């Protein structure tokens, strides 16, 4: 399993737009075989940072998602929404592998 961690820098006055953007991706990632773990919006502390995490069974599955999603009209809508609203300034993407308890 591979988990993608996204850290966004968001304008504080675009929080509602960013939340709408995130809700789009909550439905899109599972369509391509991933598990979305959610978006995490500012509450206390820094008001210009938001996070998101989603997982795929492997890096190869993630790469296939990137390829397949590039042609999807709903993905294009989400990308266009972000461009039009400027709901984030930039993002960083990192990948992690979980350490999970061993089964019986």
Automatic annotation (TrEMBL):
Cross-referenced SUPFAM superfamilies: Dimeric alpha+beta barrel (SSF54909)
What is this protein identified as?
A: NIPSNAP family protein
Source species: Bradyrhizobium cytisi
* Gene3D superfamilies (UniProt xref): 3.30.70.100
In this chain the NIPSNAP domain maps to: 7-99
